[in-house]
Amino acid sequence: MNRSEFIIATAAVLFVAFLLGWFASWLIHRVTRVTQSEMGELDRMAQELHDAEETRDQAITYLQQREAELSNQLTQTEAELQAAMEGLRDARREAEELRSEVDRLGGEA
């Protein structure tokens, strides 16, 4: 095989390799091509995901506000309970003092 035959054979092999590569690329592009309807579906799913994330964020904000309100109510209720318990203690102590006074005055008579 002389030099010209070698060059022609090499060129033919490279050309065939180029054609096979181009065909494989075209075939992969055809198989994996995203159609317009698929793009519409992807856009719709992206919008639904965005809406779901907004709804989640709103729910989290609402729950945080509600938790703060309930914590505030609990604190107020505990303070009221503490005040009521102190008032009851004072009333019992006063009632006991009055009983003692009545018993003391009843014993003197």
TrEMBL record:
Keywords: Coiled coil, Membrane, Transmembrane, Transmembrane helix. It comes from Tropicimonas aquimaris. This is Membrane-bound metallopeptidase. The chain crosses the membrane at residues 6-28. The keyword Membrane applies. The keyword Coiled coil applies. Residues 60-108 form a coiled coil.
